[in-house]
Amino acid sequence: MNKWWVALALALVAAGGVAAWWLAAPHQDREVALPADDATPGEVVAAYLDALDAGDCDTAVALREAGTSQDSTWCADVASLSNPAIESPRSEDPAWSGRPATDEVVSVPVRFDLEMRALRGDGSLGDGSMTWGYRLTRSSDDGPWRIFDQGHG
User: How far apart are CA 94 and CA 37, in angstroms?
Assistant: First the structure.
């Protein structure tokens, strides 16, 4: 085999490897600022969605209530999240989600267009328009809102 063909084949394999890594590997495009502690539930959800789109998993995790079972892995699977439409928060009885009666709980419905990274995720989410929802809580009137549940839509 001609050495030029071998060199070309090696270059194509290397280029394919770089392309596969770029499509599948998580990477952060930009940093998203945490909203102020007095931010509304809608502002917290907007920052969370922006963090998912940016690949800023540190900010996404910081907007979740400490100790929640869902971590940054979902964030790492997102290639892009665009066209978010955030509806007004709806108050919920804390007992509905097993929260203490002293907690304030709201549900925030959202719609967005989602593109997942190739070869990532568990297959439960696909590309396209999504109807989703987030539940947020705070334990006092001056406490920050944090996401403790998601997925209901």
Answer: 21
Q: What global pTM score does this model have?
A: 0.80
What pLDDT, on a 0 to 100 scale, did the predictor assign at position 18?
47
- For Cα atoms 57, 60, 62, give the angle at the middle one, nearest 5 degrees: 110
Q: 37-150 in CATH: which number?
A: 3.10.450
Amino acid residing at 39:
A
Q: DSSP per residue over 17-66, as a string?
A: HHHHHHHHS-------PPPPTT--HHHHHHHHHHHHHHT-HHHHHHTBPT
Q: Which tokens sit at 146?
A: 């944090």
Whether 105 and 92 have beta carbons less than 8 Å apart is answered as yes
Task: Determine contact, residues 40/112, Cβ cutoff 8 Å.
Answer: no
Cβ neighbours of residue 120 closer than 8 Å, sequence gap 6 or more: 24, 26, 76, 77
Domain map (residue ranges) of the chain: 37-150
Flag residues of the chain having pLDDT under 50.
Answer: 18, 20-25
* Residues pairing with 64 in the sheet: 147
Q: What are 74's strand-pairing partners?
A: none
Amino acid identity, residue 109?
P
